[in-house]
Request: fold
Amino acid sequence: MLAFSAAGSAAACGAAIQRALSAGWAGVPVAVRVGIHSGNAKVEGGDFFGRTVVIAARISSAASGGEILASQVVQDSLAGAFTLGEARSLVLKGVDGHHTVFPILWR
Reply:
């Protein structure tokens, strides 16, 4: 997990990670799943906790290898700075309701 002060920085980092690893490592394909969510988190002992962290982890788990998924909150704050794919509705384990996510098109 990485934490950023701005959603745009998180999206840019996710895209950079995907680009760097998309060719693989020593000839072995590397498919990373990235999930981005924004909100308040509790910080204790250099680690982050709370609902925001849980939602980010669940969104990451829902992504396919090589995909970046961003929550509706992140999509709103990106304000068109990144190209996004079609919205998807997810049910996230342990979190009530449906959650809209958007793939960030990094290729």
Notes: The helical segments are 7-22, 51-62, 72-78.
